[in-house]
Structures are given as C-alpha cells and as structure tokens.
Design a protein that fits this description.
- By secondary structure, this protein is α+β, with helices and mostly antiparallel strands.
- It has a single domain, classed as Roll (Nuclear Transport Factor 2, Chain: A), CATH 3.10.450.50.
- A hairpin with a 2-residue loop joins strand 3 and strand 4.
- The radius of gyration is 14 Å and the shape is globular.
Amino acid sequence: MSIENVNVVREAYAAFGRGDMPTVLGLLEPEVEWIESDLPEIPTHGTFRGPQAVLTGVFATVPEYWTEFALTPEQFLDAGDHVVVMGRLRATAKATGRNMDAPFAHVFELRRGKVARMVNYHDTARWIRTLGR
C-alpha cells in the first residue's frame, strides 16, 4: 500500500500548490495531528488537531505573512505507512520583503489512505530572519 500513500501525499502538494484547500483537507484524517515548530516566532508554531485546525492555524496564515509562498517537493521517500518528503520552500515575507529559499523535510504518517500525522522540519533560524523577528 505504500505507493498509494506516496500518491496521496503527492496529490496533497499538488492541491496545495493550486490553492485547492478542500482537496487538501479531504486527504486528512478527521483526527489528524499536524506538528509545526514550537518556536513562537514562527507564525504556524504548535500542534494542530483536525483538518479545521490545520486550515486556520497553518494554511490560512500564509497570505497573512507571505506575498509569495511555494513548496517544491524534490524527493518522496516511501517508508510504508510513512512518506518523507524533502524539498525547498521559496517565499517572500510580507513585513520585510525578504526572500527565503530554504530546505524542508515533511514526515507524513498515513492510515486508511489519509494523512494521520505530519511533522514539519525546517530551518527555523532562516524563517525568523526572513520574517524579521
């Protein structure tokens, strides 16, 4: 079932890239656990439970803090019920006008063909510098 899991995650990135939030949210388990940085200087800090919390606490903050924001997945690593995605984030901060080109690693855990958990690993120092915090 792991190739199916990779395809679910690929579709989530594609839908996010085209701004199709209903599709992204539909790929999340009702009790999804979405873990971002714990640093309060990062706008999306914290752990979010449920698709609505992910929408309001993570995705909806993008236009508030960024004039441009693009995730480019470069590698999808199939690990059965887990999919690791490595890629680049290119963004421009609204408050500072600074550009960011930073690596990321996202670790997804899937159950029943949906994302049950996601952990975001990124360069928090670069985020803080770009945001001017």
